[in-house]
């Protein structure tokens, strides 16, 4: 508004502006944010040194304080700021309060501990080792339980290697290990009655590379040449020289090389049958043989170990030794069928006693093992060709008694087919 112009009504008069000059020694003005907190003494004005302040219209000193300078508040800066003040920002509002729950919240499932995982893995490893090592330990134990003998030793002019695999199985009348009570139970007679061990059963098993195995019964009364003895019954070779001479005699008579040998006695045979829980057999005719300790009716029946031993030993039948060989083949088939059945193999309470009794009852060659016997049993579990060597007739020989003669021509063709791993022609089979 220009000077001299009248003021509007009701508006106070304009006060003169007071200018304060800085001295050269005073510091520059501070910003509000840099102002000290301690009270600052106001600078002296020209009015404090005797000067008179200018008067407003009406004679009053400026400010309306009656000539007294206005009193400043403590801590209030005495000069204007040179920087813009920092704007004030209000803090964010607090979050809304959560409603109180009357029930406890469900607990979160705990994470599985690493230690528990380690323990579980350790137990799985132990279980795996047991599953693997236990059968291995059992096989080693059974293999060491076998009684080994030198049955397949080499000799001059021995038969060369033939095709397939050939086993010689014998059942001897040895009573080694039997108590007097067991001898009476099995009706084997005393050791003094035996007059030396003899082979009651002689079987040749040929396992081809392909096809069904052939089980050949060799009659113990077969009249053959025995090295170092001469012509005599086949079982005389066992009495004279044991398994080694028997193997040599069979190889010379048949032209087949024997690869494995196994022998079982009276006690071992009965124990093996009892370990299986007995064998079911069907008899076409009754058999009553006090010497063998059996009195069996005709028809299907369950045979215990002692009854089975009497059944494969008896000759109280119309064809005597020929019927006995046929009974032995039938019983061997029934025995292997039950031994290799699923009910036996998957049942540790059956398979372990059976394997233990078989291993402890057998005599094998020093080169044979328990897994060789397992392969033999597995090969015979199915279809087999069971027969007898072709027979030519019977005759009496001085010093030997009644002997059995082979049909040389047919027997030669029979064993030649086995030597070349071929099926035996039907016209050479004897059922």
From TrEMBL:
<feature type="compositionally biased region" description="Pro residues">
    <location>
        <begin position="1"/>
        <end position="15"/>
    </location>
</feature>
<feature type="domain" description="Cell envelope-related transcriptional attenuator">
    <location>
        <begin position="198"/>
        <end position="340"/>
    </location>
</feature>
<dbReference type="InterPro" id="IPR004474">
    <property type="entry name" value="LytR_CpsA_psr"/>
</dbReference>
<dbReference type="Pfam" id="PF03816">
    <property type="entry name" value="LytR_cpsA_psr"/>
</dbReference>
<feature type="compositionally biased region" description="Basic and acidic residues">
    <location>
        <begin position="49"/>
        <end position="59"/>
    </location>
</feature>
<feature type="region of interest" description="Disordered">
    <location>
        <begin position="178"/>
        <end position="198"/>
    </location>
</feature>
<feature type="transmembrane region" description="Helical">
    <location>
        <begin position="123"/>
        <end position="142"/>
    </location>
</feature>
<protein>
    <submittedName>
        <fullName>LCP family protein</fullName>
    </submittedName>
</protein>
<dbReference type="InterPro" id="IPR050922">
    <property type="entry name" value="LytR/CpsA/Psr_CW_biosynth"/>
</dbReference>
<keyword id="KW-0812">Transmembrane</keyword>
<comment type="similarity">
    <text>Belongs to the LytR/CpsA/Psr (LCP) family.</text>
</comment>
<keyword id="KW-0472">Membrane</keyword>
<feature type="region of interest" description="Disordered">
    <location>
        <begin position="1"/>
        <end position="117"/>
    </location>
</feature>
<feature type="compositionally biased region" description="Pro residues">
    <location>
        <begin position="88"/>
        <end position="98"/>
    </location>
</feature>
<keyword id="KW-1133">Transmembrane helix</keyword>
């Amino acid at each position: 508004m220009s000077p001299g112009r009248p003021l509007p009504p009701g508006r106070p008069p304009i006060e003169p502006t007071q200018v304060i000059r800085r001295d050269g020694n005073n510091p520059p003005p501070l910003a509000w944010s840099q102002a000290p907190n301690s009270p600052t003494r106001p600078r002296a004005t020209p009015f404090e040194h005797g000067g008179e302040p200018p008067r407003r219209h009406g004679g009053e000193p400026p400010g309306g304080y009656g000539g007294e300078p206005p009193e400043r508040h403590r801590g209030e800066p005495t000069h204007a700021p040179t920087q813009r003040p920092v704007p004030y920002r209000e803090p964010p509002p607090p979050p809304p309060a959560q409603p109180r729950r009357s029930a406890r919240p469900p607990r979160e499932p705990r994470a599985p501990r690493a230690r528990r995982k380690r323990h579980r893995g350790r137990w799985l490893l132990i279980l795996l080792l047991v599953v693997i090592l236990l059968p291995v330990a059992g096989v080693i134990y059974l293999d060491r339980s076998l009684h080994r003998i030198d049955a397949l030793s080499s000799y001059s002019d021995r038969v060369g290697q033939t095709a397939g695999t050939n086993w010689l199985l014998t059942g001897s009348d040895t009573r080694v290990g039997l108590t007097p009570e067991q001898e009476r139970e099995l009706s084997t007679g005393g050791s003094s009655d035996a007059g030396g061990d003899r082979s009651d059963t002689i079987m040749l098993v040929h396992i081809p590379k392909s096809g069904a195995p052939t089980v050949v019964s060799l009659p113990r009364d077969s009249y053959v040449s025995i090295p170092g003895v001469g012509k005599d019954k086949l079982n005389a070779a066992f009495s004279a020289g044991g398994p080694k001479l028997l193997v040599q005699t069979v190889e010379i008579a048949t032209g087949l090389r024997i690869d494995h040998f196994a022998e079982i006695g009276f006690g071992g045979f009965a124990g093996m049958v009892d370990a299986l829980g007995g064998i079911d057999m069907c008899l076409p005719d009754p058999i009553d043989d006090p010497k063998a300790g059996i009195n069996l009716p005709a028809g299907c029946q369950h045979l215990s170990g002692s009854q089975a031993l009497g059944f494969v030993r008896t000759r109280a039948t119309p064809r005597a030794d020929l019927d006995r060989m046929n009974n032995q083949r039938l019983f061997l088939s029934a025995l292997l069928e039950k031994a290799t059945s699923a009910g036996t193999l998957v049942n540790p309470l059956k398979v372990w006693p059976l394997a233990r009794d078989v291993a402890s009852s057998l005599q094998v060659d020093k080169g044979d093992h328990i897994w060789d016997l397992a392969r033999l049993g597995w090969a015979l579990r199915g279809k087999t060709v069971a027969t007898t060597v072709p027979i030519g007739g019977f005759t009496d020989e001085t010093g030997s008694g009644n002997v059995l003669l082979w049909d040389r021509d047919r027997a030669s063709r029979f064993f030649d087919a086995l030597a070349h791993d071929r099926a035996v022609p039907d016209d050479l089979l004897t059922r």
